[in-house]
Design brief:
mainly alpha, 4 helices, binds zinc ion
Length: about 160
């Protein structure tokens, strides 16, 4: 059956009402955390340590729409803090090690945990945005970048 639209506005409205394919959130977040393309699972999300590829080299799914911004460091700080601080307090209460042991163990553990968690967390957040059709991942969105308002005329 062929549907004829009377205007492009009618076509656009019908397109926006059409349900988008379901994207499983957990699967997308796990694939992103493992640096695998959320769409095909073969390509990679990152082309540097934290630099995101423009698009998947295998299937062409675009990743440049992501707006992870400062969420990955926020979640990394929260998780690492909740691991290191209780561990530090527990070790101090149980063993009372010398200060130089504290000063050599905890900063090193903090840096290692932060570096190892940042990328998987960022990939998972990009996977979440992709699965929920957020930002430019929604094909029906007009434009992800807000229009620059016209400069107002001076009235004085
Ligand atoms: Zn792909």
């Amino acid at each position: 059956m062929t549907v004829r639209y009377r205007s492009s506005d009618e076509f656009q409205a019908a397109r926006e009402e059409a349900p988008k394919p379901h994207r499983p959130v957990l699967k997308a977040m796990l694939r992103g955390a493992c640096n695998s393309c959320m769409q095909c699972g073969r390509g990679s999300v990152f082309n540097g340590f934290l630099a995101v590829s423009h698009a998947c080299a295998e299937c062409g799914e675009e990743f440049h729409h992501h707006r992870a911004d400062d969420a990955p460091p926020y979640f990394t700080i929260t998780i690492v803090g909740h691991i290191v601080i209780p561990a530090l307090l527990l070790v101090e209460v149980l063993y009372r090690p010398a200060l130089w042991i504290h000063m050599s163990v905890w900063p090193l553990l903090t840096v290692l945990l932060s570096l190892s968690l940042m990328r998987p967390i960022k990939g998972a957040l990009i996977g979440l945005q992709w699965a929920l059709y957020m930002h430019g991942f929604d094909p029906d969105a007009d434009d992800d970048i807000p229009a620059i308002p016209e400069p107002s005329e001076k009235t004085s």
